[in-house]
Amino acid sequence: MYYLAFVKNSHKPTTPNFDAIDPRHCINAKFRKLHRLAEQAYQQEIGHFDMKGSMPSILFVVGKRPEISQRELADVLIIDTSTVSRDIKRLSRRGLIRFINCDDRRQKALMLTAEGYRFVEKLAPAWAKAQNRMLALIGELNSKRLSIMLDDLQSSDV
């Protein structure tokens, strides 16, 4: 837990709205810190694969759902399309993902290449180790709570 010292500031104007805020209770900051801690744990296990951010998740989803569109992939992973596009380009340059034509000629679908499947086969045990490590840290109950929170937030108008 971090400590935030509050000091009197005689030069500060009267700011009752600002004074009512305690940054230690910021939910956004807590989510960001949780993300950083989880990312560190995963990177310790999968960092040597040169996979950053959403790249492993993209590979896993594309491998499980061949011919998924970029838009569907973004929706499944709950990430913005620009991030998906950037990471797909990187994965494509590495020969792990390829584009295929869809029924809708305006879109391209995604598939893992043979090299992509070989890569995820090597990546999966390291990812599972990171997953198990995080599960040991937060516990099964908190993992379920996270899933419930995500479901609730996704179904709301946030």
How is the topology of this model organized?
Blueprint: H1 16-19, H2 27-46, H3 55-64, E1 68-69, H4 70-77, H5 81-93, E2 97-101, E3 108-112, H6 114-155
Antiparallel strand pairs: 1-3, 2-3
List keywords for this structure.
158 residues; mainly alpha; Arc Repressor Mutant, subunit A; 3-stranded antiparallel β-sheet; 3 strands
Put the structure in a nutshell.
With 158 residues, the chain is mainly alpha-helical. Helix content is 61%, strand content 8%. The model has no long low-confidence stretch (mean pLDDT 89).
Fourth CATH level, the homologous superfamily of the domain at 51-155: Winged helix-like DNA-binding domain superfamily/Winged helix DNA-binding domain
Q: If classified by CATH, what would the architecture of the domain at 51-155 be?
A: Orthogonal Bundle
- Residue runs with pLDDT of under 50 for 5 or more positions: none
Tell me the structural class: mainly alpha
Give the CA-based shape: globular
What profile does the largest beta sheet have?
Answer: 3 strands, antiparallel
Oligomer: single chain
Q: How much is the radius of gyration in Å?
A: 21 Å
What fold name goes in the CATH topology slot of the domain at 51-155? Arc Repressor Mutant, subunit A
Give the DSSP E fraction (strand runs of 2 or more residues). 5-15%
Tally of extended strands?
Answer: 3
Order of strands across the main sheet: 1-3-2
Fraction of helical residues: 55-70%
What order do the SSEs take from the amino end to the carboxyl end, as H and E? HHHEHHEEH
* First-last Cα distance: 28 Å
Task: Give me the number of helical elements.
Answer: 6
Average pLDDT for all residues: 89
Q: What is the CATH C level class of the domain at 51-155, in words?
A: Mainly Alpha
